[in-house]
Design the sequence.
């Protein structure tokens, strides 16, 4: 019976956490459309989440595109299908690897930073001070980060896609013996609007997940420095898992 009781407690704790998360996100989404609007805070978060993430996203996309070209070439060469390398690199980057890799990189950087910042404000009672000053903490702290992440992620993924395809081009022309003009022509011929739009749609969803997990765990951190560290870890882990799960669901919906 003690074993069953422990399972019951774990189940109830999980359902309680899920309910609290949905209430928190519902409050945040509704607050997006209500005044006041903190445009300066939004601009600051666009810089933090979007602009400052460009280097890591660009480098990751470049090396991912190069490695993808090498792997596809080694497999296609067995069947004499080397000509399909440009098309497969482009489709793989734009549909899957660009959004997912960029999402995971931004989750490791932005979700951790958001959770640490809000968690520190929570344990030092700065969030309670905002309430005392008649300022809605969700509107002031969560909404700018949520909107900035949703706006920034499609732009970051567009950069990751471009740099990733360029990385495949560099490796293919420099190492695998492809002619540059033919590689570009095959890439352009293979690209379709749905390939790009699906990746950007995923990116917007991933941005929402990253900011939501960072803000939620930061807002609910407790226990001083140890609690802030736990909130930061939880934000990165949960956002990464949800990104992978959402990627599967969106792929099934968009391409089935």
Sequence:
């Amino acid at each position: 019976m003690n074993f069953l009781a422990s399972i019951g407690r774990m189940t109830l704790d999980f359902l309680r956490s899920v309910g609290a998360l949905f209430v928190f996100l519902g409050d945040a989404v509704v607050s997006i459309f209500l005044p006041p609007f903190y445009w300066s805070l939004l601009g600051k978060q666009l810089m933090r989440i979007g602009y400052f993430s460009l280097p890591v996203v660009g480098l990751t996309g470049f090396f991912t595109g190069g490695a993808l070209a090498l792997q596809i070439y080694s497999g296609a060469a067995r069947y004499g299908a080397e000509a399909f390398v440009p098309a497969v690199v482009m489709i793989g980057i734009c549909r899957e690897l660009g959004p997912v890799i960029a999402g995971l990189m931004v989750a490791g950087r932005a979700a951790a930073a958001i959770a640490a910042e809000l968690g520190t404000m929570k344990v030092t009672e700065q969030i309670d001070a905002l309430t005392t000053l008649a300022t809605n903490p969700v509107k002031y702290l969560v909404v700018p980060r949520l909107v900035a992440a949703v706006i920034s992620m499609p732009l970051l993924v567009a950069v990751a896609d471009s740099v990733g395809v360029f990385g495949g081009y560099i490796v293919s022309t420099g190492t695998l013996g492809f002619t540059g003009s033919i590689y570009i022509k095959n890439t352009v011929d293979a690209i379709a609007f749905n390939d790009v739009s699906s990746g950007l749609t995923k990116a917007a969803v991933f941005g929402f997940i990253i900011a939501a997990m960072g803000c939620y765990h930061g807002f609910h951190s407790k226990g001083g420095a140890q609690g802030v560290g736990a909130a930061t870890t939880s934000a990165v882990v949960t956002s990464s898992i949800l990104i992978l799960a959402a990627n599967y669901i969106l792929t099934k919906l968009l391409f089935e």
